[in-house]
Specification:
Length: 87
Amino acid sequence: MKGIKRTSAATLILFLTLSILTSKYESASDGIDEYGFPLTFYNHSSGKRDSYVEFGFKPYALLIDFGLIVSCFSIPILIIANIKKSK
């Protein structure tokens, strides 16, 4: 149970850190604000656009992002646990 709590906390911290570090804040100069790593799960623009771009929240991208990060943390922990168990 202790490992699950640590993994969950580390996953959440990593997800938030990567999302913040890879975000783009360009709406002040007619650009697009984008949030999310590796998939963009939210984008916003306050400027005028010539082409149509879908803005807003994309829940499927958020779930995929979170699932990838959980997998990246869980798989090594499961492998290590199975190696320790077999010894």
